[in-house]
Amino acid sequence: FPSHDSNSTTNNPSIFEEFLQLPSLDGFDGNIKLNINNSSFDNINFESLKLISNIKDGIAEIKNLQSGIFGGNLKYQGSIGLKFNKNISGNIEAKSINIQNLLDVFSIKNFTGTANISSSVSFTASDYKQFLDSISANIKFNINAPTINKYGITQSVQKMFFYKIYQKELQSPESILFNPANQSYFKNSNGQFIIDKKELKYKINATAPALTAVTSGKINLTTSKNNGNANIIFLTGNPTKPTAINIASSFIVTGK
Prior knowledge:
single chain; alpha+beta; 13-stranded antiparallel beta sheet; 6 helices
């Protein structure tokens, strides 16, 4: 791949930065038909990669692009512009994705589950700054049976139903929440990420026995500042006469 651009924000170029550095195919016409059994890029493994595309004047119209990835399947339909200004405009669909394998790419180790993800995406750029300025995406996801390792929401709710027994332990809830032996189990999680004008807006819903949680907010993609709100409703009391408790909070996480 091309050498890293001196204007880049990092010494380790991302897949997007590598794409932006590809040579221009302005004026190039052709047809591509590609089948690769196994391949990898940036430690991401692709299985049974298939590509059928027509290129006219440096614009590739993707008729079929699909691959096995992260234990599931990935498909893309749309166009890819390979002139001096690179651009992408299309739709991505990923099914049966292993969340643990996906998040491992970002060094996030404590989530598991199986996800279906769909997204529209578009941008036009010649460098990474223009990429951030122009990228637009609408990402929707649904995760079946997600778990969070080393975080004990499930154990906290269970013990609240038997408060008299666990009263002493519940006086220090952080000892339950952050116990590395605990796990948080959810039935389902779904949500949406909208990227536009260097801002990512998000809303994430999660349900579990005796628990419903909604997190929403926005992240500045330039500064990584995260302004969000969390609303959690859980049941406590006793199994025969549960009581609903609503906890709402806001948070700000600053970037580098």
